Amino acid sequence: MDLETLLSYEWSLMGPEFIIVIASVILTLLDLFLPKKFNRRMLGWFAFVAVLAAIVSLLGLLDNQVGSILHDTFRLDSFAKAFKLLLLVGSALVLLLAIDYEPKEGLTEYRGEFFYLFLTGLLGAMIMSSSGDLITLFVGLELLSISSYILAGLRKKNLKSNESAMKYVINGSISTAITLFGMSYLYGITGSTNLNEMSGMLRTLTDPQYTYLLGLAFFMIFVGLAFKLASVPFHMWAPDVYEGAPTPVTAFLSVVSKIAGFVILIRIMVSIFSSIPVGDGTIPMLFDLQDFIGFLAAVTMILGNVVALRQRNIKRLFAYSSIAHAGYILVAFTAMSYVMFDSIWFYMLAYVFMNLGAFAIIQLITEKEGSEDIGHFAGLYRRSPILAVTMAVFILSLAGIPGTAGFIGKLNIFLGALMVSPSHYVLASIMIATTVVSYFYYFGIMTQMFFRPAAEETKLKLPAGTNAVIIICAVATILLGVMPQLAFDFLQTNFNQFMDFMG
Q1: Is residue 392 within a helix (H) or strand (E), and if so which, with residue range?
Q2: Minimal CA–CA distance to 167: which of 97, 243, 89, 66?
Q3: Confidence (pTM)
Q4: In the chain, N or C: fewer CB atoms in 10 Å?
Q5: Does some domain include residue 2?
Q6: To which H or E segment does residue 398 belong?
Q7: What is the pLDDT of residues 300-316, one digit of tens each?
Q8: What sequence ranges are listed for the domain NADH:quinone oxidoreductase/Mrp antiporter transmembrane (predicted)?
């Protein structure tokens, strides 16, 4: 590639990515050369400003038409913009938690590592959002995965952290191998890795032998990507990793990594498998295999909510809660209604605020008590009424109680499952039943906070960053529950119902 061709590309489309890349390189060099006594929290503020700059850069690109560079391997369409915005907002909130994070075993010497690894993981998720090619999708997936593996084991002298990182790496490697094997079938049949080119070629295939191989590719890719979603069958890593990882890393995995998982799932599945005709040639393979996706959604919802009932560790409880929420979003993906993109985007937006707000309070309590037992939430209302009320808001939203963002998110998914033909009555019923089951463990936390006596009456101090996260998340959770049209109007105005997704 000559210099003239290189300069001809519209590099401004990658503005947010360039900001994150430059920031991560600078942070790496600063952490390497700054003296050990230097307070690494300043690096966190630098990373936070970089993420804010990337948000501003992305907002400046909202009015742009669909653009692609590097032979259509990087696409900036409505889907990419919408989900990058979620990734960046979630990352900014996690960074505020990380700056205030101060566990009893200390993380001073590793704090710098966290910030630049965090940015590289975010970069991988952003690359996946804009990928128009299997190779760049896989590069983004691995960049996120490898960064996440290291972050999960950042507490190097903590045995639980070591164990969780090892389990994460092993499970992640297996799921990656399965995903890559499925992708190899797609490349072998089409001779291309570009999603649009593959989609065009696959529309013309009628040989049943190809259909059989493409079915195998579908199952392997879907099962492999289930790892990133923390959905069945690759859900078993989540409880151990959530418990062993530092709390900001747990928050990162529960929000940013999960959004990235759904991004790559939708990119591959909708772009490719909705183009493959099966049967008499009128039904796409993706619709023909809805029962399989629906089965995984149902099992994920049931397992996540039922196993959460027996948890005493607050981070393990939220791990199973996260598994259950992956199942709820898979219901929207199963239904494939015309509001699927809107429903998933809104649910993810609500999940960012209600989950990160809850993790901010979990971080405060677990740091103060030195333990993650749910019993330490006892009497929180007496120690800090504001914290107890805001935690109640986040729990009510996670449970899907009316008046919160979580309720609107679940309602959209529920209606989406019923508005298609044939309607998914069984899946919608399981969603309602498992939501009711979730009330038992969510309200168990509220019982501890409001009706159990506190072991001590000392007041809790709120660091500035954590306080900001709690306020922002509480306001957003209530606002999106009372006036959800704010988010949907923003979607309609800027993303045009994702009509440009397929090229």
Answers
A1: helix 385-399
A2: 243
A3: 0.95
A4: N
A5: no
A6: helix 385-399
A7: 999 999 999 999 999 99
A8: 131-430
With vertex at residue 494, the alpha carbon angle to CA 493 and CA 500, rounded to the nearest 5 degrees, is: 115
On whether the CB atoms of residues 326 and 229 are closer than 8 A, the answer is yes
Opening angle at CA 399, ends 394 and 405, nearest 5: 60
Structure tokens at 433: 């039943």
pLDDT, one tens digit per residue, over 94-127 is 999 999 888 766 566 678 889 999 999 999 999 9
Residue 322 CB burial class (10 angstroms; 0-12, 13-18, ≥19) = buried
| Angle at 316 (CA atoms; ends 311, 320), nearest 5 degrees | 85
Number of Cβ atoms within 10 Å of the Cβ of 61: 17
**For every residue of 294-326, which 3-state class applies, written as one string?**
HHHHHHHHHHHHHHHCCCCEHHHHHHHHHHHHH
State CA 205 to chain mean position distance. 34
The pLDDT tens digits of the residues spanning 367-415 come to: 888 788 898 898 888 888 899 999 999 999 999 999 999 999 999 999 9
Distance of CA 437 to CAs 66, 298, 302, 397, 432, Å? Answer: 43, 14, 9, 15, 9
269: DSSP letter: I
Q: Distance between CA atoms of 272 and 124, rounded to whole angstroms?
A: 21
> Among 123-137, 218-232, 278-292, 468-482, whose mean pLDDT is lowest?
278-292
Distance separating alpha carbons of residues 322 and 319, to the nearest angstrom: 5
Q: Secondary structure of 412-473 in the HEC alphabet?
A: HHHHHHHCCCCCCHHHHHHHHHHHHHHHHHHHHHHHHHHHCCCCCCCCCCCCHHHHHHHHHH
Can you tell me the distance from the alpha carbon of 134 to that of 73, in angstroms, rounded to the nearest whole number?
Answer: 8
- Are residues 438 and 399 in contact, defined by beta-carbon separation less than 8 angstroms? yes
| Contact between residue 387 and residue 446 where contact means Cβ atoms under 8 Å apart | no
Domain for residue 3, yes or no? no
In a domain, 341, yes or no: yes
Comparing 191-200, 387-396, 451-460, the range with the smallest average pLDDT is 451-460
Could you tell me if residue 19 is inside a domain? yes
For helices 290-308 and 425-451, the axis angle rounded to 10 degrees is 20
Domain extent, residue 257, equals 10-498
Dihedrals phi, psi of 75, to nearest 5 degrees: -115, 135
Please say if the pLDDT value at position 349 is more than 90. Answer: yes
Check residue 416 and give its pLDDT.
93
Number of domains in the chain: 1
Q: How far apart are the C-alpha atoms of 239 and 259, rounded to whole Å?
A: 18
CA distance 193 to 50: 32
d(CA 175, CA 172): 5
